[in-house]
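Our consortium's second objective concerns turning raw sequence data into structural hypotheses that experimental partners can test. To show how far this objective has progressed, the report includes one record in full. It was chosen at random from the queue rather than selected for favorable results. The single chain below, 254 residues long, was entered without modification.
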Amino acid sequence: MADRRYDDKEVGEILKAAAEMQSGLAKSGSADGLTLDELQRVAAEIGINPAHIGRAANELDSLPKGKSSNKSDSILLEKSINGELSDEAWEELETELRRFTGSVGQTESSNGSREWTGNWDTGSITLSATNRRGRTRLRLLGNTSGYSALAVTIGIVCGILLPLVPIIVANKNPQSFTPIVTALLTAWVAGLCVAGTVGTIRTHRKSFGKRTEALLANLTGIAESFSVTPQSVQTDSFAESSIEKDLSVRVNQR
């Protein structure tokens, strides 16, 4: 075992586990993972600047989470940005949401969070924005179950009516269509109806997912252009920057 070589992933896991043992996190940790403070403690144990962990966590939070799928009528996307939303920013977000849905929508607010929901004939969009510690988390939930229900209804009607065509034609021309041929044609037409319905739903779900992702990108751009950084967060950032500069000067003097 002493001669074994560990890859980068294994090295990271070993160092993390060792640091957790040394700092006492292994006993108190849970299946829910680690908090930012705990991650910074682990980083300090293995010689990584905790400030870098904070920046990396911010970059991770800024990445959109979730993706479009053709297997579900719902799509949930999340994005975190620096700064908190102002009233003006929220109004701009509502304008963009109304343009997308064609609905006036309804807004609810409580404890630093706002939520807007708009519906149309075949779907709905809900945007929630939560301000916490100088950051804003956007959660966009899209639902297109109404379109799927409509497509299934049309598919059922077509699946019942269209297979009757070969039967009617066969009754009028019994010499041209044997019972076997009629049965095969009926099954083929019914299969086309089922395949067409499923294909239509999947295509729409995928298209809706892409349009929802584009909507979140637009909303994020609007939110970032109007976001406001609280004074307390600015002070903390300035203090952190000053500490790092002071440490850098001391190291250079040595």
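The partners drew two points from this record. Residues 1-49 form one domain. The two ends are 41 Å apart (CA to CA). Both points have been shared with the crystallography group to help prioritize constructs.
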